Amino acid sequence: MSKDHPSRRPTQYDVARLAGVSQSAVSKVLNDPASASIPAETRQRILKAVEIVGYQPNVLARSLRVGKTHMLGLIVPDSANPFFAELGKHMEEAAYRQGYSVILCNTGGDPDRESFYTDTLLRQQVDGVIFVAGGNQANCLNQALERQIPVVVVDRDLPDCAVDTVLLDNFQGGLLATRHLLALGHRRIGCIAGPSNVTPSAERVLGYKAALGEYGIAVDDALIRQGNFQLESGWKRAHEILGQAPRPTALFACNDLMAVGALRAAA
Question: Please, where in the chain does CATH 3.40.50.2300 lie?
Answer without folding.
Answer: 67-166, 170-266
